[in-house]
Amino acid sequence: MKLWWLWRKREKELEKEIQHHLQMAASDRKERGATFREAQAEARREFGNVGLVREVTRDVWGSRWLRDVAEDARYGTRMLLKNPGFTIVVILSLALGIGATTAMFSVVYGVLVNPYPYANSDRMVHLTVQQTRGNPSLSTSTDHNCNSFGRLDR
C-alpha cells in the first residue's frame, strides 16, 4: 500500500511540474502582450506533447514495464471474456499442448535418462564370457558363471 501512495505522490508532483512550466511560459507570453488564450496556446505548442512528456518521465522512473504488463493482462482478459468461443479453443489448445509435452518428457526421461529403477544404476555392469576354444562368440553370463566370478573376486 505504501508503494501505491508513493506512486500517486510522484504522479501529482509530475502533474504540478508540468502545469508550472505551462503557467510560466504562458505568463511570459502575456507579459509580451499576447492575450490569455493565445499565451496558453503558444505555451502548449512550445512545451510539446504533454502526454509524451509524462510517458518519457515514467520511463525514466523505471516503473512503466510493470504498468504495461498490468494493462496488457487486463486487455487480454477483456478480449477473452468478449469472445468465449475463442477462449475455449485457446484453453483447450494450451491444455492439449501442455499435456502432450508432459507425456513426451516423461517417456524420454524414463527411457533415456533414467532407464533403470535401481539406486546407483550408473554402477551396474554386464558380464560376458568369451570362449577361447571353438566358436569365439560372446555369450551372456549365467547364474553359475556369476557365482564363479564372485569366488574369484575374494
Please give a handful of descriptors for the protein shown.
154 residues; mainly alpha; two-stranded antiparallel sheet; 2 strands
- The average pLDDT score comes to 83
Which shape, going by the Cα principal axes?
A: elongated
The separation of the N and C termini measures: 73 Å
Number of helices: 6
The major β-sheet equals:
2 strands, antiparallel
Instruction: Provide the β-strand percentage band.
Output: under 5%
SSE pattern: HHHHHEEH
Structural class by helix and strand composition: mainly alpha
- Biggest sheet, spatial arrangement of strands: 1-2
Radius of gyration: 38 Å
In words, what does this structure look like?
The structure is a single chain. The mean pLDDT is 83. The chain contains six helices and two strands, in the order H-H-H-H-H-E-E-H. It has a domain at 2-82. The chain is mainly alpha-helical and 154 residues long. It is 74% helix and 4% strand. Strands 1-2 form a two-stranded antiparallel sheet. It has helices spanning 2-31, 36-47, 50-61, 64-82, 84-113, 143-153, and strands at residues 128-130, 138-140. A hairpin with a 7-residue loop joins strand 1 (128-130) and strand 2.
Give a topology summary:
Layout (H helix, E strand, L loop, with lengths): L1 H30 L4 H12 L2 H12 L2 H19 L1 H30 L14 E3 L7 E3 L2 H11 L1
Antiparallel strand pairs: 1-2
Helix pairs in contact: 1-2
